[in-house]
Structure formats: C-alpha cells, structure tokens
Amino acid sequence: MNEIKPPYIRRIPTYTQHVNGCGLSSLLMLVDLPKNEEIKAFLEKIWDKIRSIFGKTSFNQKDLKLAVALQYLLLKSVGFSNKDEIYKFFNQRLEYLFEDHRIINKFNQEQFRQDFLNKHQPDEAYTFLHYLEGDRDYITPLILMTNIHTMKTDAELKILAEIFNYEFFYQDSEDKTGVIYFLKKEIGKKITDPIKEKWKKLEELSNNPDIIILYGQYHHWLAIRGIYRIHQLTKLEKSEENKDSDKTLELNNKIEINKWNRKSMIIDMNDPATNTTIQLNFSQLSEGDRFYIFKKRLNTDFKIFKKFLKTIDSDIKEEENRWKDFLKKKVKKKPKPVEQKIIKTDEEASIALKYESKIKEILDGSINSAHQEKYRIIKLKEPPIINEITEKKSEDIKDKPKFWDMLDED
Q1: Do the Cβ atoms of 25 and 16 come closer than 8 Å?
Q2: Termini Cα distance of the chain
Q3: CA nearest to 214, candidates 139, 158, 150, 130
Q4: What Cα–Cα distance (Å) separates residue 319 from each residue in 47, 79, 296, 310, 325?
C-alpha cells in the first residue's frame, strides 16, 4: 500500500472575541503571533500607547487587548487625515478598494454619530467629530468600542491583512468576487468532478504555509487550520501491487469511495466565538459560506509599522485630552445631602430634655434591673461582609463614571 503526504494543519493559537469582533480575532489567530514576534511586538506597542485612555478595562485577556489595538489600527488606516506615507502604502497595494472603503468608513462614522443624536446623546455624538473633522483622525474609546462591536467586512480584513504583508489571492469564482464557495446545487449527495476540482484547490492552498484562509460563515468569521479528507490522515493510497486481485480491488474500491464521502471532507478551524477548535464536513456547508484566500508577500518588510507608531505618538496625547473633556461632562456632581432640621415647640423640647437621660438608661439596660428582659436590646450577629473592599478609592477615581457602563446596550 502506498503512502500519501499528510495534510498541513496549522498549530495556530485559539483566541476569544469581543461582541461582533470575530473578524479581528480570526485574523490575529491566522497571523500566528507566537511565531511572528515582529507583528506581536507591534500590536503590543499600540496597546501600550492607547491603554492609558481606557483606564481600568472590563476585559483582561491579552488577545482582547490586541484586538482593540487592531481596531485602532484599522481606524487610523482608513481615516481622512493627512497621512501621506500610510495612504501611499495602501493605495499602491489595494488601489480602488482602499479609496472606496475610506468613503464607506466616513459614512459609517456619520451614521454612528446620527444614532447618538437620535438617542438624545449630544456629547457622545460630538465625540465622533474628533475623528471626522480636522487635520487628524482622533480616536476615543467611545469611537473605538462602537466600531469594534460592528462586524468586519471582507474589505476591512483585506486592509488589515496588507499591514502584515498578506495580499488577497484572487480565485476564479462564479460571482467574480475572487473567493471560493460551493453552489447550492453542488452541496448535494453526489460529489461531481467540478466539485472535486474545487475541493482539491482548497486542499492545495491550505497545504501552502504561505497561505492563510479566512472562512466567512453567514455573519461570522473563523480561522482555518486545514482542509483535508480523512483518508489523508491515514496516509494510505490505492495499492498498485497485485491490483487485479480480488482483495486489492475490494480494498482500493473502499479507499476510493471514502475519498469523496461528503462527511469525510473536513474543514478544520478555530472559532473565536467559543475559543475552541472545531471541524465541519462538506455536508454542513451552505451556499453562503466563503473561503477568502490570502497569500504572504515575499521580499517585503514591516517598515510601515514605524509610520503607524509615529502617527500614534503624534495623536495619542490629544486623544487622551479630548476623552478627559468628554468624561468631565459626564460626571454628575452629587449634591450634598441637606440636613433636615426638626423644629420643636417649647413643650416638645421640654419633654425631650426631661426624658433624654431616662431613655438612655433604658437603652443601656442600666435601669429596672428586675425587669431587664423587658428593656434589653438584643444585638444580632452581623452577617459576614462579602467581598469587602479594604482598599480606599482615591478622590479622583471615586466619582469618575465607568466608560463601559456608559455604552448603550441597544
């Protein structure tokens, strides 16, 4: 029996996601940060520069922080401020796609702003003008988190992939989008020759270490580890020895049948929604599923990283100041409680004075010792304080609203 080459399955990390942040997390998994220290260090530097704006975040996982850095990077990339070197970088690589998406991005930010106005939140709406108007694309946490909670389009992921030197690898497809997918009529019980060719193409691309594949499943993005058929894991192929014998014919026939069994055709991937590795088979595909292929650019470097870091250094202080101004508007000064003074008549004051000492003696249990039970105050044991906070909050932090609680859940 001949042996066949086993499929290439990427040992990429599993990351979790922000709400609707599956595209960002899937791309982070595919660029394989543990094996690409330069990319990892770049994203960590971005987070270190912007983290001071956030203060204490509601998320602690490192992968979620890097996803925020990636969203910040995307907003800086598609803004309309004067960033000639960055604009030139994308325009040379993506041409009309980049220019078109800049226009779409501006429209989206205007829509977010209008949504806040419709909710009678003028301060929040005004925040978006920091990004939309002026010579700089100033980003605040409100803008950042509003965008990160919006599902990424394939155009946005193509722009981000270019930063890490992965270009969209166009494939012949029925809808001329350059992505691989299977028509509804193809996802049937019979595996025809055109389907076999299309699947073999996916296997070939998946087995290339310089290729990464994003899997778009309806409104969800996943990171593909490998595409293969189960028989390839067994490393067995048809035997050419004694191929006319009944035993060999029977065995070869079984191998051939299992080769193209719909349930043995596997898509192996990491799902950021569950932070796990999952496998789907061909029978579980739908016509809406898409395979986006990205190929690593050879003989390239990461000089663009320095351009981005320089831009962030120029903007971050002003972004921090503008965010502080916004928070000051949202801090509601708590009025000091007015002490209610009870005005007593002369007669009431006299009675209170007369019996004040006697009441004190009764409460202390020092009077009427023969009938002590009648007046004794029974002190119940105090219930234990759960999660008692021993550390005092500073005056600066005490009245400061938590940004995460200010986001509208609607």
Answers
A1: yes
A2: 61
A3: 158
A4: 14, 15, 34, 15, 10
Enter the DSSP assignment of 3.
B
What is the token pair recorded at 108?
A: 């989206």
**Which among 160, 199, 208 has a CA at the least distance from the CA of 180?**
199
Distance CA 81, CA 136 (A): 5
Which of 409, 382, 407, 388 is closest to 54 using CA atoms?
A: 407
How far is 223 from 214, CA to CA, in rounded Å? 5
- The tokens for 385 are 């304080």
Among the residue ranges 72-81, 240-249, 263-272, the one predicted with the least confidence is 240-249
* Maximal CA-CA distance, the chain: 122
Q: Which residue has the tokens 């309309």?
A: 80
pLDDT digits (tens, 9 = 90+) for 336-363: 566 666 666 766 666 666 555 554 555 5
The residues spanned by each domain of the chain are 1-16+165-300, 37-163+301-339
Share of the chain residues as helix, strand and coil, in percent rounded to the nearest 5: 50, 10, 40
142-157: b (≥16 Cβ within 10 Å) or e: bbbbbbbebebebbbb
pLDDT in tens, 360-405: 555 554 444 444 433 333 344 444 444 444 444 444 444 444 444 4
Would you say how long the chain is, in residues?
410
Instruction: Look at the block and give the residue holding tokens 């509003």.
Output: 146
Q: What is the pTM of this model?
A: 0.77
Q: Which tokens go with 274?
A: 């569950």
**Rounded Cα gap, residues 75 and 77, in angstroms:** 5
